[in-house]
Amino acid sequence: MNEPTTAPNSATKGGLARFVPLALFAGFAVIGVVGLFVLGDRHELPSALLNKSFPEFSAPLLMDESSVMSREDLIGEPLLVNVWATWCPTCKAEHAELLRITQDYGVPIVGLNYKDDPRAARAFLARYGNPFRYNLVDADGQIGVDLGVYGAPETFLLDANGTIVYKRVGDVNPRIWRDELAPALKALGVELQANTGAG
Amino acid sequence: MIVEVGHFAVGLAFAVCVLLSVLPMVGAARGNERLMALGGNLSVAQFVLLLGGYLALTYAFVTDDFSVAYVASNSNSLLPTQYKISALWGAHEGSFLLWTLIMGAWVMAVALRSGDLERAFAARTLSILGFIQLGFLAFLLFLSNPFERALPLVPVDGADLNPLLQDFGLIVHPPLLYMGYVGFSVAFAFAISALLSGRMDATWARASRPWTNLAWAFLTAGIALGSWWAYYELGWGGWWFWDPVENASFMPWLAGTALIHSLSVSEKRGAFRSWTLLLAIAAFSLSLLGAFIVRSGILTSVHAFAVDPERGVYILAWLGVSVGGALTLYGMRAHTIAARIRYDWLSRETFLLVNNLLLVVSLAVVFYGTLYPVAYEALTGGEKTSVGPPFFNFAFVPLMLILALFLGAAPFVRWKKTQASSLVSKLWPIALAAVALGVILPLVLLSELSIGVVLAISLGLWIVLSHSLDLWRRRRSLTASYWGMWVAHIGFAISMVGIGVTSGFSIEKDVRMVAGQTLTVADRQILFNGVSEVSGPNYVAQRGSFVITEGSNDYALYPEKRRYLARGSVMTEAAIEPGLMRDLYLSLGEPLAGDSWAVRVHIKPLVRWVWLGALLMALGGGWALLDRRYKRLRVRSSAAATA
């Protein structure tokens, strides 16, 4: 019963046991790296709709709720569809970048005002500037469901046939523009000449 | 301009930390006194520079400088000034600036109090702290810089602070939590310094103890405040949700608690030294992991705190370098500790070993439950799973009850060896009294009984009674560290009783009420007087008016549903009638058809005890610092400074 004991850790006795914590940590680190890149991939290329047509829809315009637009109106030239809302802080953060993209490069952006209060959305655009060619109203989020939207903001790039060729979950920032959006637009044959006079 | 000066100051702090992480270390290796002495000055310099950067950003917030992108997305001209100041840590970039400032303060404090330590040991410690701070500052400057301007398109007004965060609890919660997280870096640095020098004797344990206690006290208070805030602000009536962000702070707490106890054995008896070193590494590593969990967005959605996966990659690489490096060093050096400290199976050493085992197993439970969903998703290629509160409660609660069982006996167990027969003869009357009162008290006071509640109250009394007897026995020779231990243990008992009773006996009713209606819940009449519109500084609200009759007492409660104007987000503001013995908690749900409202009524007995106990634990951790042993160190070091 009165067997003397020593320190609880076998690591003190030498041998490889003292590297067990390091091995455990390395195991978790591997899982962390894999997890990060799996989630990272989902982050970049998540949509089941990638390389498929933009879904059919019918939605009123934000500025003129009597006009109704449909999928056909998105066909003809490459354009961006930006899912946004006034309740979404990241949308506010990316707003300046959207303005820059339309003003400097003339890229058309169609807004999808997602689960928002149309009055708040109009007030927001009047106050901070309007980068959108026009805005579709998706008050109940139905178009968002068809599009597989996680949340706002998300941005889709459509080619001239209305096929989704790129999707961004999260904000569009100068880095995303430079590294991803601009090359994707160029690949569609869009000329991106910066309007140097704009500002 | 001021913002740019602040930005520049943080850049300079980065440069100072480059020097700090190299020069004193080189000095220690070469025995160069001048290089070693630089550590102190550099430590003070990096803090002063960071403080400058911090104040510059605060200035931008207070003066509504929306050309700073971070200010624009987290403040608003209508925001009350105290929230403008606290909005600085309302989102990722700013909170990380606060993190580095607090780290800077710890580094400086260690430098100022290091006079009593051996020169080379202190120099190495400061260099390691400087290296850690360097990693944080690189992350701040290159991956989450709060000083960036949103030029040329300056918004007219800001997007406002997340309304969830416009609250006293959230003003104080992050700084306290960061004090704890970052504070564990000191024990970590001492441990690495000891491993580097090969002198893993009681010196480093003695040096680490006050710092670890202080960091632990802050972390405890921070977690308690976070829990209290979730309770009154989220509107669900719960106070702990086992969500990844909470767990992120709880894991370092469990490791830190184990560390505090293990350090006492290492200091007093020289045993467990290798194990204590490992715990010191673990506590800080888990703090870094907490930062990783919260900031990489790995555990939450893609729209979490940080949108860029680059940040996650950086933190992971940083974890790899610091934790991997520390554990490698541990593996290479730990075997040189020759510890042959003898102790009996029934001794305080064994009890503290059991304490450590229980805490580490609890930690493993929380770790597994938090990271399993990520691992699962990573290994299956994207399938989701989740681990809910039932898992945590099932695994965690029994461990804590066993811990409480040992804690109650602990005051009567001596170092080295205790006679089993004398221990039993001292303990059985306490056990009997605790169980008897554990059954009688809930019957008399609450006229209810359940196994969980009887267990919680009995074990709580078991701890309180045994500790009180011990206090009486020692009344002539009480030290501050004894008082600290005593108060913290009583706090643990109080928290446990609070958790047991509020989990067992809470009444929760979700009802539909129309104006003029009276509802009776557990002998209380709740009269609903309808809803009116009110407006606050940056929100409009629907305010419900209730009058509650409780015995001969009448009081009014006004729960609100607020809509914050800038973000359009809706927040529930619960109304709570607090009490030491019970809380009455009302929150206003959705408006229903025909002028009626969904109303949530909770009666939560002893819920305050959960936080009261935690605050006592934090108080105990701080109290132990007042011990004369440490004061003597301080006097000596200030004498050295003036000399």
Account of the protein in words:
The complex is a heterodimer of chains A (199) and B (643). Chain A has 199 residues and is of the alpha/beta class. Helices cover 37% and strands 17% of the residues of chain A. Chain A has five helices and seven strands. Chain A has helices spanning 20-44, 89-105, 118-128, 142-147, 174-187, and strands at residues 58-60, 68-70, 79-84, 109-114, 134-138, 154-158, 164-169. In chain A, strand 1 (58-60) and strand 2 form a beta hairpin. Mean pLDDT of chain A is 78; it is low at 1-13 and 40-47. In chain B, a hairpin with a 2-residue loop joins strand 4 (539-550) and strand 5. The radius of gyration of chain B is 26 Å and the shape is flat. The chains are: A alpha/beta (199), B alpha+beta (643). The interface between A and B is large, with 55 and 66 residues.
Low-confidence stretches of chain B are 300-307, 639-643
Overall shape of chain A: it is elongated
CATH topology name of the largest domain in chain A: Glutaredoxin
> At the first level of CATH, what is the class of the domain at 1-166 in chain B?
Mainly Alpha
The largest interface is: A-B, 55 and 66 residues
Major sheet details of chain B: 6 strands, antiparallel
Just name the CATH architecture of the largest domain in chain A: 3-Layer(aba) Sandwich
Helices and strands of chain B, in order, run as: HHHHHHHHHHHHHHHHEEEEEEEEEEHH
Radius of gyration of chain B, in Å, reads 26 Å
Strand count of chain B: 10
**How many E strands of chain A?**
7
What's the mean pLDDT score of chain B? 87
Beta content of chain A: 15-25%
Biggest sheet, spatial arrangement of strands of chain A? 5-4-3-6-7
Our measurement of the CA-to-CA distance between the termini of chain B, rounded to an integer number of angstroms, reads 41 Å
First-to-last CA distance of chain A: 85 Å
Number of helices of chain A: 5
Specify the biggest β-sheet of chain A. Answer: 5 strands, mixed
Q: What is the CATH topology of the domain at 1-166 in chain B?
A: Four Helix Bundle (Hemerythrin (Met), subunit A)
Alpha-beta content class of chain A: alpha/beta
